Amino acid sequence: MGPTNIETNVPHVTITRKSHILSVPTEVAFLFFDRLEKKDLASLRLTCHQLNQFTVERLFKRLVIRPTQNLAGLNNIRDETAQYVQSIELFPARPSDLYKPVDESNYQSADDLKTPSFPNLRTLHLHGHNLQMRRVAVKLLQEHNSVKDLSLNFKQRYFTPKHCEEELQGVRRLETLSIRLGRTQETWARLPHLESLWDTKSIAPAWDMITANSDTLKVLNLEFPSEIVGVFGQAEPSHSPDTSALFPTTPGKWKKQLQLRELKLQHLENFGQVYEQTKFFNPETLQSLSLIDCPESDGALLALAESMTNLKSLQIRHSLRDPQKLRSLLKRLPALENLHIALPYQQNFDYKWLATQKHSVKYLWVEALDSRDKDNDNFEDWANLEELAFMKFHQASGRRSGVLCLDPGKPEDDPLVASPKGCPKKF
C-alpha cells in the first residue's frame, strides 16, 4: 500500500507518510486487531477513517449492558454502529441485585420501550433478573427474529422462570440455549422466609421453550445448581438430590427427539432414569457430551456409547459411581479428540483405562489421584496428543495443588494448561 494521507485540524496542512499498520495485508491486520483490548480499539478508531472501518466491527461486536435509569448505554448507539452488534449481554447493576426480591407489580410492558435495531444480532444473554433488563430482553426478542443463541441465568433466591412465562412462549428458531436454574433452601431456623422455590410447575416455561425449538436446537446447556443458606446468611453451593424430579417425564411431552450437536448437563441426578423415561435427545447426532456432577451415570453412558457414533468430545466430571466402568465405556465409544475425566479424590484411577483412545485423542485433561508411579502409560505413543494436563491431588487430604503440564518449562503449580505438540511427552 502506498503512502497514506492523514488530515489534520490545521487548514491546508496534510501530512503524508507511510502507515505500517495499513501497509500489511488485510488478513494480517485483522489478526492484530483481534488481539487488542477494547480501549486500544477505541483509540485506533479515532486515528483515521480507514482504521475506524477496520476496528468498529470488533469494537461493537459484543455489547455488555448494565441497567441505568435511562438505558443510555443502549439507546445512544447509532444505526450505523448497531449493524455491527452480534451479541448483547444484560447484567444486573450490582452482584447483590441477584438476591433482591422481584416485585412483579413494578414490571412495565416492553411495548413502549425504544431500542435500536440490530440487524445482525444473534446472541442474547440475560444474567440474573432485573425488571429493567428483563424489559430490554423481551423487547429485543420481540423485534429480532435473528437471535439464535439465548442464555438465561435464573440462579437467584427470589426468581423462577414462571416470572418470564409470557416472554418465553414466543421464542422460536433457537439453535443454542443455555439455562441456569437455581433455588435456595432453608437450613437455619432464623431464616424461615427462605424456602425451596423449585417445583415442576414453576420451571415449566423453560421446558416449553426447549420443546418449542426442537426442530432447530443444536446446543443445549442445562444447569441445576442449588444453594443452602449458611449460619451467617451467605449462599453456599450444595448438591440437589431432587433435580431429576424437575425434568418433565409426562408421556407425550417429548414428541420429538432433540437433534443436538452438543449437550451439557450439570447437577442432574439420575441421568439414566431421566433419559430412559424421556429419550429427549438423539445420541447419534451428538458430537460433544458433558456430564458434570451427574451421579451414577455409568449405566446410561454404557447403554448409549455404541449409539453415539459421531461423538468427538467427552467430559465426565464426578458422574461415575464405579470408575472402572471408564475402561468399558471408552472401548465402546468412537475415536475421540477431546477427553476430560474428573474423579473424586477417594476413587482410584489407572491411566491405562484410557489406552483405547490413545490413537485419536488430541486434548486430554485428567483430574484424579496421580498414579503414574505404578508403571502407567507415559503417553509417548499417543501420536496425536497436543495438550495434556493433570490436576494433581494431595493423597492425604484430596486438595488440589495445581496442574501438571507436559511443558517441562512450566512449574507444577502453574494454572496454565498448554503443551504444544512436539514437547517431550515424559515427566
Tell me the overall shape: globular
User: Class by helix and strand content?
Assistant: alpha/beta
**How would you spell out the order of helices and strands?**
EEHHHHEHHEEHEHEEHEEEEHEHEHEEEE
Q: Work out the oligomeric state of the chains in this entry.
A: single chain
Classify the beta-strand content into a percent band.
15-25%
For the secondary structure, the number of strands is: 18
Instruction: Pick out the low-confidence regions.
Output: 1-16, 184-196, 229-237, 393-427
Major beta sheet summary? 13 strands, mixed
Rg calculated over all Cα atoms: 26 Å
Tell me the helix content.
10-25%
End-to-end span in angstroms? Answer: 50 Å
- Which strand order does the major sheet show? 3-4-5-6-7-9-12-13-14-15-16-17-18
Total helices: the number is 12
InterPro entries: F-box-like_dom_sf, F-box_dom, LRR_dom_sf
Domain F-box: 18-63
Organism: Orbilia oligospora
Protein name: F-box domain-containing protein
Structural description of this entry:
The protein is an alpha/beta fold and 427 residues long. Among the domains are: 148-281, no CATH class; 310-427, no CATH class. Helix content is 21%, strand content 20%. A 13-stranded mixed beta sheet has the order 3-4-5-6-7-9-12-13-14-15-16-17-18, covered by helices on one side. A three-stranded mixed beta sheet has the order 8-10-11, with no helix packed on it. The longest helix has 13 residues, at 131-143. It is globular and about 60 Å long. The chain starts with a strand and ends in a 22-residue tail after the last strand. Mean pLDDT is 75; it is low at 1-16, 184-196, 229-237 and 393-427.
